[in-house]
Amino acid sequence: MASLRLLLAKPWIWSFIGALLVWLATITFTGGYGGGGMITAALSLAVFTVIVGVGQMFVITLGPGNVDLSLPANIGLASAVAMKVMDGNDSMIAVGLLAALACGMAIGAANYLLIWALRIPPIIATLSASFIIQSIDISYGRGLQIKPPPGFASFTNWQILGIPVLAILTVLFSIGAAIALQRMIYGRSVLAIGQNIRAAWLAGVNVGRIRFLTYTLSGALGGLDGALLAGYFRGANVDIGNEYLLASIAVVVIGGTSVAGGKANVPGVWGAALFLVLLLTMLNTFGVSAGVRLLLTGLIIVGVITAAGGQTALR
Amino acid sequence: MTAAPVETGPKSSSERGALARARLLRGLLPAMSLVLVLLAIAWLNPRAISYFGFSLMLNLAVPIALATIAQMFVIAGNELDLSIGTFVGFVGCVTATWLKDTPLVGVLILLGSIGVYALLGALIHLRNLPSIVVTLGMSFVWQGLAILILPKPGGKAPDWLLSLMAFKPPLVPFPIIAALLIAAVVYFGLMRTSYGVILRGSGGNAAVLERAGWSLLKTKIVLFALAGLFGVLSGMALIGITTSADANIGNGYTLLSIAGVILGGGEFVGGRVSPIGAVIGALTLALAASPLLTFMHIPPDWQVAANGAILIIVLAARVLISRRER
């Protein structure tokens, strides 16, 4: 009983409960049919949200005003870079992934450069950067629909006993991210900066370096996500990352990370990502039209945020 | 983040003079960027600087300016509206369908949507929610509603709206008159009335305002309702120009409106905004985005990048000036 109460006190547990409820509602509707397949599909789609969500989580944890709005443009460009470098050739997969990572890291570093050099709020810096990245992507990837190498495409769709391998790898990555957040100097520094940037600085935290690393990390994860998305959806395109702006911020907030910064958790990102993906699956199963689906998604996100409440405004 | 500049004792008169000059320079920055863009256009294509040229180039400036003003009200209260673009699209769809066919229902829907904006303001204040998450969620709601109203591009603008937007006054092109009018009205409302000061104060120092007995709930509701009102005007103006609607028609306006406010000298926090600057910022963006690039033979691919680049250049210039302000 005590352990149950302890579990319920965790901020991330609610996202998993939400995901479970949505799943139960859907299989009740289908009469128990397709419950397993739904979880498989949800896991493979949630992976992409989790990867950018973790990056966004580190950024948001830095404190009020920190958010990476350049993720969608970043994902779009990295997907094009990865597909162009791989060029449909299995032997180039590793090089393509590295290129996408490098592209994302460069974008993250450029974001921080703008924040640091122009002393502007990260929202505006990442927004301006995203304008430019978007144009580079349109110009670079014009009419580009290069297929991923067959090996890469099947890797991103590879399943063992109904569990996507990519999801297993992402769980391992999340465990690593959780350790980095709670047990490593880097993560503790991020939390310290989010709680009180001045106190962190006085305590000897190299604030500039940690912020630089965090934006670069977020960029790198966006780049990686772009490459994986292009593999999973069999091709890169400019709009491939569009939905990940809302998704990356929403999973962080729904997952129980404080939007005021200084308090974060990784499991919640998983719970919230599964919740969002299952929600879409449920609405599709109910056969609602695109308009109703968007409407309900928006209302549910606003509802969840309202119920979860906020401590201090993000800005 | 919102640390106020610390006053360090009395300043000598020369220092104060330098400070005033820096402030003036900073205030003139939006106008200077507009003049720079105009000069570039005049140099590249002198024929564009004419009644007809301006009417054409500034065609879409009116809805952009209105959306920028809407965003400015939200930013004045230290919030951010990421749904204004899809809201403009939603209003466009209502304008091209309900407002034309059954004007009464159309008007009621638009008034209701302003009410929704006011409620959002209340919700954000009462539950202390992050506005960017709430408005990101709302952007899906507006888009969903727009698609439900108009699944395929179509509809038609009401005739009175068409003739209003096609109005050709003598000497000065309509978009310029409209921009001046918008700037003047909002300037007097927000900068010259006593409640305008309270509204800006809610972004400047909410704690002091509350202690002085003003309702922060009310200021937030008013700011969001005004944003909704100008969003509605923006959507209607847009449909008056394009004549028909599309659920995605306003999507670009979210980013344009934020960029316009910042270009116009607005600050992200602290209630420091400028209606005149915001309108100038919107005009600069409208001109720089397509006409200037077309004259420079830059492909449309780079239109969005031009917006980003202008934003960065202006912010860099502002940093240089602020350094002197210190």
UniProtKB/TrEMBL annotation, chain A:
<dbReference type="InterPro" id="IPR001851">
    <property type="entry name" value="ABC_transp_permease"/>
</dbReference>
<feature type="transmembrane region" description="Helical">
    <location>
        <begin position="269"/>
        <end position="288"/>
    </location>
</feature>
<feature type="transmembrane region" description="Helical">
    <location>
        <begin position="12"/>
        <end position="33"/>
    </location>
</feature>
<feature type="transmembrane region" description="Helical">
    <location>
        <begin position="92"/>
        <end position="115"/>
    </location>
</feature>
<feature type="transmembrane region" description="Helical">
    <location>
        <begin position="160"/>
        <end position="181"/>
    </location>
</feature>
<feature type="transmembrane region" description="Helical">
    <location>
        <begin position="294"/>
        <end position="314"/>
    </location>
</feature>
<feature type="transmembrane region" description="Helical">
    <location>
        <begin position="39"/>
        <end position="62"/>
    </location>
</feature>
<protein>
    <submittedName>
        <fullName>Putative ribose ABC transporter, permease</fullName>
    </submittedName>
</protein>
<feature type="transmembrane region" description="Helical">
    <location>
        <begin position="244"/>
        <end position="262"/>
    </location>
</feature>
<keyword id="KW-0812">Transmembrane</keyword>
<keyword id="KW-1133">Transmembrane helix</keyword>
<dbReference type="GO" id="GO:0022857">
    <property type="term" value="F:transmembrane transporter activity"/>
</dbReference>
<keyword id="KW-1003">Cell membrane</keyword>
<dbReference type="GO" id="GO:0005886">
    <property type="term" value="C:plasma membrane"/>
</dbReference>
<keyword id="KW-0472">Membrane</keyword>
<feature type="transmembrane region" description="Helical">
    <location>
        <begin position="122"/>
        <end position="140"/>
    </location>
</feature>
<dbReference type="Pfam" id="PF02653">
    <property type="entry name" value="BPD_transp_2"/>
</dbReference>
UniProtKB/TrEMBL annotation, chain B:
<feature type="transmembrane region" description="Helical">
    <location>
        <begin position="82"/>
        <end position="99"/>
    </location>
</feature>
<keyword id="KW-1003">Cell membrane</keyword>
<dbReference type="Pfam" id="PF02653">
    <property type="entry name" value="BPD_transp_2"/>
</dbReference>
<protein>
    <submittedName>
        <fullName>Putative ribose ABC transporter, permease</fullName>
    </submittedName>
</protein>
<keyword id="KW-0812">Transmembrane</keyword>
<dbReference type="InterPro" id="IPR001851">
    <property type="entry name" value="ABC_transp_permease"/>
</dbReference>
<dbReference type="GO" id="GO:0022857">
    <property type="term" value="F:transmembrane transporter activity"/>
</dbReference>
<feature type="transmembrane region" description="Helical">
    <location>
        <begin position="304"/>
        <end position="321"/>
    </location>
</feature>
<feature type="transmembrane region" description="Helical">
    <location>
        <begin position="253"/>
        <end position="269"/>
    </location>
</feature>
<dbReference type="GO" id="GO:0005886">
    <property type="term" value="C:plasma membrane"/>
</dbReference>
<feature type="transmembrane region" description="Helical">
    <location>
        <begin position="49"/>
        <end position="70"/>
    </location>
</feature>
<keyword id="KW-1133">Transmembrane helix</keyword>
<feature type="transmembrane region" description="Helical">
    <location>
        <begin position="24"/>
        <end position="43"/>
    </location>
</feature>
<feature type="transmembrane region" description="Helical">
    <location>
        <begin position="221"/>
        <end position="241"/>
    </location>
</feature>
<feature type="transmembrane region" description="Helical">
    <location>
        <begin position="276"/>
        <end position="298"/>
    </location>
</feature>
<feature type="transmembrane region" description="Helical">
    <location>
        <begin position="105"/>
        <end position="124"/>
    </location>
</feature>
<feature type="transmembrane region" description="Helical">
    <location>
        <begin position="171"/>
        <end position="190"/>
    </location>
</feature>
<feature type="transmembrane region" description="Helical">
    <location>
        <begin position="131"/>
        <end position="151"/>
    </location>
</feature>
<keyword id="KW-0472">Membrane</keyword>
